[in-house]
Design a protein that fits this description.
The structure holds two protein chains of two kinds. Chain A has 14 helices and no strands. Chain A is mainly alpha-helical. Chain B contains 19 helices and four strands. The chains are: A mainly alpha, B mainly alpha. Chain A: Keywords: Cell inner membrane, Cell membrane, Membrane, Transmembrane, Transmembrane helix, Transport.
Chain lengths: 303, 430
């Protein structure tokens, strides 16, 4: 992108204008995500920077909204912060309970989506797979069909089959939504896979399952893990299906956020948002490291 | 020629099978093996995804609220409105209700009273003609006091019982399978004589909303294209160690919770929010005319453009990265200006990426629900929000299912187009 030496003035002007435009677009992409972080430390219940905050006055900042996350829903939030206070928080705090539900649902749906998705990706990447294109289209469709349609269908289906208001129902639905991501990432990893390795293992007497666990799986593991992380994030962020098929007391983090935003939006929502942004930065780092590792393993050095 | 084929047929494997047959068997076996790997997931998706959607489509053409009552606890099923339905069968559409018809309803009302299904039947008729539910609940309450002559008794209850529209609505409700919910979803209604007419101008709602969804989605697709093209180009032409760093700006929003991004936009766009404060603070705007950026179409468009931008950048980037820079250099050395070189040489090579990104963004935008629901207000909502309203607010589930069915058909056509032009295999995530 370096400017050639022979560029004339107009080209130079355009080049720097272009860079400024790109900078503004990157700002547009990232600023809305980062803006919530300082605002979540606001001492006042406002959604904007107070004068004290802009003057970097320490009294303009506080962690009261993070504290509210812990104490909201507790039996005795005012007590001394000893062992029993923390036990109370762990048992009764609304956000902690929502987080527990989200983690349980996310964990099991990820497990289901990853196991089934990896197996299917192995089949789909074989050249002899019959009806490959049509089956792939069906398996990816949960990602394409609008979530409101899926949720509507599940609402009718679960009320007939008795899966409504149960963890099982939510886990099955979230696994379905996560599966396309697992299939996409695992088939992408399998593109550069050298099939002579499995043939070599087979010719040396390994059973198919032995071949899978000691040859194939270690090689495609980075793809499997990123697929699993995608599936987990999908479940961890999903609110519409939960709203439609879950019982009233089955709160998850996104559902709690949704209620908070719709009813009375308070900066406590921003502190949850900040924690979730930190969470997604961590995940992105992990996925990026995995991708590089996978590229190195498969000999695809970054070009 | 024949000799050659004969010689090939003669080839056999070690255990004496013809080679062709043995090869065919081996190929069929490996096909089956590949299929067995996919089968568990296929069954899973068919059960947890395809079956629910088929059931939803069934709900959109089937509503037995008028004809069948199922007890919540005992699951005992009681057919409803039997006498009236028989009268409908015997008399063609458009027949004026006679004493026999009113007698049939009076008998049916007693059954409704017994199984407490007056509200259910009234609600079903209400979908076809408003104000019918209260008439039914009232009539069921007084069912036992209705005496012959029934026509006069019903007129005493409510003059509206003679309304031809009510009788048309009851006749429509009498068959559990109906296309009327799809008619309602395109602002049509069945007139008393059975013909299909438009609903009144002031109650037409759905076509307008489908149109708005289409227009806003196209606008959002266009905006994402305008914003994504320059940065995708920059990312594709920078050395990889810089572009990988800048890529974080694209991927971080992609990984961040949708609710977090929507919340951020609410914080930014509020009339007392950061953006308005900044404009007022810098003196561009007077305090009293702060811009209303949220709870309207502007809010929906801004927030959704931001949220869907990565889906445009990534396909563009993956098409731009492998473009050889020497083509543009060759054009320049042959005398093309930088604009001509871009327009004639570079841009045409990026068209597949534009198509892939635009189609993907459009598909996702058409069905968007969460962001318009939170920042859209009244006139920034899309068709998905209306489906949700009928599911959770008005409880007209069949209409919700019909609207969802129409949206689904549109999405599936676009999806098929995407598969045809781009190929699902080429869908990439970061």
């Amino acid at each position: 992108m370096a400017l050639p030496k022979h560029a004339d003035t107009l080209e130079r002007v355009w080049h720097y204008t272009y860079l400024v435009i790109c900078g503004l677009i990157f700002l547009f992409l990232i600023a809305p995500i980062l803006i919530v972080i300082p605002l979540s430390f606001n001492a006042e219940p406002y959604f904007t920077f107070t004068e004290k905050m802009l003057a970097f006055d320490p009294t303009g900042y506080s962690t009261r909204w993070y504290d509210l996350l812990l104490t909201f829903g507790m039996d005795s939030p005012e007590g001394a912060r000893d062992g029993s206070w923390w036990r109370d928080a762990w048992a009764n705090s609304a956000w902690i309970n929502a987080a527990k539900n989200s983690v349980i649902i996310g964990f099991f749906s990820t497990l289901l989506a990853t196991a089934l998705g990896t197996l299917a990706a192995l089949g789909l990447s074989r050249p002899e797979m019959p009806f490959r294109r049509a089956i792939m289209a069906v398996l990816i469709s949960p990602m394409i069909v609008p979530i409101i349609i899926t949720a509507t269908g599940l609402f009718f289906f679960y009320s007939k089959t008795g899966l409504a208001n149960s963890y099982g129902g939510i886990i099955l639905a979230h696994a379905t939504l996560g599966i396309p991501f697992v299939i996409i990432t695992v088939t992408a990893t399998l593109v550069g896979f050298d099939h002579s390795l499995t043939r070599a293992a087979a010719s040396l007497g390994a059973t198919p399952s032995k071949t899978f666990f000691s040859i194939t799986l270690p090689l495609i593991l980075p793809g499997v893990i990123s697929g699993a992380l995608f599936a987990f994030v999908t479940s961890f962020d999903e609110v519409v299906v939960v709203l439609f098929v879950a019982a009233h007391d089955q709160q998850t983090i996104p559902r709690q956020m949704w209620n908070g935003i719709r009813e009375q939006i308070s900066p406590a929502i921003l502190s949850v948002a900040t924690l979730l942004v930190i969470f997604s930065v961590t995940l992105l780092t992990v996925v990026e490291l995995l991708r590089r590792r996978s590229e190195k393993q498969r000999g695809l050095s970054p070009s | 020629m024949t000799a050659e084929t004969g010689a090939q047929d003669a080839l056999v494997t070690a255990d004496g099978k013809p080679l062709k047959a043995a090869l065919r068997a081996a190929q069929a076996r490996s096909k089956r093996r590949a299929f067995y790997l996919v089968a568990p997931l296929l069954v899973f998706i068919l059960l947890t995804f395809v079956a629910p959607i088929l059931q939803m489509l069934h709900q959109s053409i089937h509503n037995d609220g008028f004809t069948m009552h199922e007890d919540v606890i005992s699951h005992e099923r009681t057919p409803l409105m039997v006498n009236l339905r028989q009268w409908f069968d015997e008399n063609p559409r458009g027949t004026a209700p006679d004493e026999a018809a009113y007698a049939a309803i009076a008998a049916d009302l007693l059954v409704l009273r017994e199984v407490k299904a007056g509200g259910q039947v009234g609600t079903r008729v209400n979908y076809e003609r408003s104000r019918s539910r209260s008439m039914f609940t009232k009539a069921v309450r007084r069912a036992e006091r209705l005496e012959p002559p029934f026509e006069a008794a019903f007129m005493d209850l409510d003059e509206d019982w003679a309304d031809p529209e009510l009788w048309a609505a009851m006749r429509s409700s009498a068959s559990a399978y109906t296309m009327n919910f799809y008619l309602a979803a395109i602002d049509k209604v069945r007139a008393p004589d059975g013909s299909i007419t438009n609903v009144d101008e002031d109650r037409a709602l759905y076509k307008k909303l489908f149109g708005r969804t289409l227009v806003l989605s196209l606008l959002i697709t266009f905006l994402t294209f305008v914003l994504a093209y320059p940065i995708a180009h920059l990312l594709a032409t920078l050395p990889l160690r810089y572009s990988n760093l800048l890529m974080i700006f694209v991927l971080l929003p992609f990984w961040t919770s949708l609710l977090v991004r929507t919340t951020s936009w609410m914080v930014l766009l509020q009339s007392q929010g950061v953006l308005n404060d900044a404009l007022v603070g810098s003196g561009i705007l007077a305090d009293e005319n702060r811009v209303q950026l949220m709870y309207n179409q502007a809010g929906t468009v801004i927030a959704m453009t931001h949220i869907l931008l990565p889906f445009m950048v990534l396909p563009l980037y993956s098409v731009m990265r492998p473009i050889n820079p020497s083509y543009v250099r060759a054009a320049r050395s042959l005398g093309a200006t930088s604009w001509t070189a871009f327009r004639r040489i570079y841009f045409p090579q990026t068209v597949p990426g534009i198509g892939a990104g635009a189609l993907l963004v459009f598909i996702l935008a058409v069905g968007y629900y969460i962001t318009p629901a939170l920042v859209g207000g009244a006139d920034g909502t899309l068709i998905s929000n209306l489906i949700a309203y009928h599911m959770t607010g008005s409880l007209n589930w069949s209409l919700a299912a019909a609207l969802a069915g129409m949206l689904l058909i549109g999405i599936l056509i676009l999806y098929w187009l995407y598969d045809l032009l781009v190929g699902i295999d080429n869908l990439k995530l970061g």
